[in-house]
Amino acid sequence: xxxxxxxxxxxxxxxxxxxxxxxxxxxxxxxxxxxxxxxxxxxxxxxxxxxxxxxxxxxxxxxxxxxxxxxxxxxxxxxxxxxxxxxxxxxxxxxxxxxxxxxxxxxxxxxxxxxxxxxxxxxxxxxxxxxxxxxxxxxxxxxxxxxxxxxxxxxxxxxxxxxxxxxxxxxxxxxxxxxxxxxxxxxxxxxxxxxxxxxxxxxxxxxxxxxxxxxxxxxxxxxxxxxxxxxxxxxxxxxxxxxxxxxxxxxxxxxxxxxxxxxxxxxxxxxxxxxxxxxxxxxxxxxxxxxxxxxxxxxxxxxxxxxxxxxxxxxxxxxxxxxxxxxxxxxxxxxxxxxxxxxxxxxxxxxxxxxxxxxxxxxxxxxxxxxxxxxxxxxxxxxxxxxxxxxxxxxxxxxxxxxxxxxxxxxxxxxxxxxxxxxxxxxxxxxxxxxxxxxxxxxxxxxxxxxxxxxxxxxxxxxxxxxxxxxxxxxxxxxxxxxxxxxxxxxxxxxxxxxxxxxxxxxxxxxxxxxxxxxxxxxxxxxxxxxxxxxxxxx
Length: 539
Known about the structure:
With 539 residues, this protein is α+β, with helices and mostly antiparallel strands. The protein has helices at residues 3-25, 113-126, 157-160, 224-231, 291-300, 303-308, 340-349, 379-393, 406-412, 429-434, 452-462, 466-477; strands at residues 35-39, 70-72, 78-80, 83-88, 94-99, 135-142, 145-150, 187-193, 197-202, 215-219, 237-240, 252-257, 262-266, 316-317, 362-363, 366-367, 369-375, 398-404, 419-422, 492-497, 500-505, 508-509, 532-533. The strands form seven sheets. It has a seven-stranded mixed beta sheet with strand order 8-9-10-1-11-21-12, covered by helices on one side. The protein has a four-stranded antiparallel beta sheet with strand order 4-5-7-6, covered by helices on one side. Helix 5 runs antiparallel to helix 7. The longest helix is centred in the first third of the chain and has 23 residues, at 3-25. The protein starts with a helix and ends in a 6-residue tail after the last strand.
């Protein structure tokens, strides 16, 4: 072989080796100043059914591809989006919405009332999006008017107008839409690389405030992978667990967002008698059904210590599941927790004693031993479960912290305590969490609460205007009789409110003064209309 060919081959090999080394080393991703790359798993993660609001895409969050009737404001009020106006009748069983007449889908068809009615009716049928059980039917009265008829009073139904993206009724196909969605939102769908990312481009026909970025790529990386993406300068924003909140990354600021997202454990109040739910899963727990166990956990667990440790010093103790930033929060809900002696006394009065000297109390031949399940891909939930296990030992209750996934936890959610997350600007989530007839319905009322005082407060709230309902929603959590307060049935062990942590590239201004209070699941893009690039990206 001639020498010049040998030299050429060596050069090609060297180029390949160097190129491979660069790729393996994680070099920074090239992008223009008018492009965004965000590792935002907190924004709903990768949707199994694609980007279809009818099948659950980003409810409680900005859907990006689709428009909604209303939008949430920073002050947790609603402003018009597709809607021009809305009104409810006196008993909140009928809502009428007027919409704009200048909106087109990205396939150039006009969005009208028929599309809105179709979207809501299909979302109710699917049951995969928001809870629309109070809606009887949505009807297009004319091109710009929709009437929503309800089967019961529901003053919270207006909240649904902010969280269901509208799809085109003429072309919608539930088997194909999610992989190739058509919408009228600020972005249009370009490409979905399953398991990796979704690529969106600015919608030039969007009727609302103009976005300053032409392209948005959302990576589905989470936890350590998202953190590494920031370290390698591959992203503009990386959503990371609270365990990374005190880390530093060159060229990025750590931004903590306030949330209404609360973590807590369901404590089933019914015994396990062998009864099964409609989906064939067991119901009840013979340990947590004893009220003294639930009370001891509520008074013995130290929420402040958990917030300092498990929530990395940036959690806020919570006692009733209502985040303190919500307008119906109850400021009188705090108790003196972390009281080990009180917890021991509660157990003693309840007939629980440690007869074999192993540190775990017993009663009627049963040890005070429970399993607490948490999602394995949620580090803060694991930390909460492990910390509670350590603290409960001090007053004689054995807690086995067990990592799992939601497919498995679906089978035991009504028998064993689970570390849950809740947080919405829609107070009707309390109906799904606590109302008696919701026990064993999907993920609703996992603690199996059956309390007439709870039901009465919820019924009263649903029949009241939003402002007047706040007192009733507060009473659901804390009137001394309800099933969720430590002073009542102690059916939940609420622990703390979390914050969401994001590494944000120094070149990017995400408009902190207009960012929304984050719901459960996160909504980093809620104010993307106000984002801007303040300096060029370091290439």
